[in-house]
Each structure stands twice: as C-alpha cells, then as structure tokens.
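re: ur question from yesterday

yeah so i grabbed the chain u mentioned. its 184 aa long if i counted rite. heres the sequnce exactly as i have it in my notes:
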Amino acid sequence: MPESESTIGRVRELADHVAGQFGLELWELELAGSGRGRTLRVFLDKPGGVTLEDCERFSRQFSALLDAEDVIPGGGYVLEASSPGWERVLKRPDHFQRFAGQRVRLTLQNALPGGQRNLIGRLENANEAGIELAPEAPGIEPLRLAWGQFHNARLAPREDPGMGSKRPKAGMKPGAAAARAAKD
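ran it thru and got these structure tokens back, copy pasting raw so excuse formatting
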C-alpha cells in the first residue's frame, strides 16, 4: 500500500529542513516498496556537486530526526542519500527552469504526426505553462509542451566532464555520491 500523502509531505518537509542546515538542496525524494522492504531515497544537490561526506552528514542527521519524530510508520526502511547524478530526472518546474538551455530527453504522452514519442533536444524555456523544446531530430519544429504532455524527462549531456567521452557502466550514476543506511 502506498504511503499517505501526509506521510510523504512530512518526510519531504523534514528532508528539506535538514538539507538546508548543510547548505544542500532537496532535489527529489521517493519512498518505494512496502513493509520492512521499503527504501527512502533522498536526492540532494548543491553548487559544485554533492560529496559523499555531504550525503553521510545529511543521512545521520535526517535518520535521527525521522526516528525521533516516528514519521514513517511500520518500522524498518533503508535510507539512501545521494546526488541526483549526471543524467538527473527533471520533475518539478524549478528543475526545468534551472536547466534551461541544456540538452534533455523526454517521452511525449502522445506521439507526433511522424510517430516520435521519445525526443532529445535543447530545453529552451520553462514556465508555469510548461516547456519549450528544440528537438534535435531533423524535421521537427520547436515544441511548446504543457506539463501534462510529457514524462520521464531527464538531462541528457553529451559527455560527463569528469569522465571524458566514456559512458558509465550499466547501473552506475556518474558524479553521484551516495550514502546508505538500514533502519530497523
């Protein structure tokens, strides 16, 4: 059974508070699984990137606060704190606004007349109405997309500056620091 909106909202509020104490930004948060197999993933960011030390400090403080407030009902969970990574997911309008001018990939809810649903292009603008995307595919004019017209958006850099032209191995998140702790 999915966690209640009030539980997720309270967890998000506490995570945002703790992140702020360390000069971090709460990028995204998700609580997955059920029972004792739940995982609470917290994605953090800051100018210049998140370090493993940032994740560990956040994780210790946040874990203690969650336990003290008994926010997550039902006992055990695994807490994971990490950076959003090189190909970070973009969900909220502020995510898109922050990365205007960058290369992104996304999936359209409805295919274009030529059948394309998966697009890569330059994020030209983002505002309260949606985004403007200049697709790389030939023959597709720039698009204005309302927030509900696409999903699975993420940054799509051509290469990671720290890795040269090498692509990461499957399952790796280049540039992502992470800390993980099990809570029983």
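noticed a couple things. The chain has three helices and nine strands. also Confidence is low (pLDDT under 50) at residues 163-176.
anyway ttyl
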